[in-house]
Amino acid sequence: MTLADERFLSNPDSGEESGDETLVDDSETLPHYASEKTERIILRNVALHQALQINAALGKDIWKDTNRIVTKDNRAEDQSVQLNYGTSLEAFTLAMKMQGMKLKEMGIAAA
Question: Looking at the structure, do residues 27 and 58 belong to the same domain, yes or no?
Answer without folding.
Answer: no
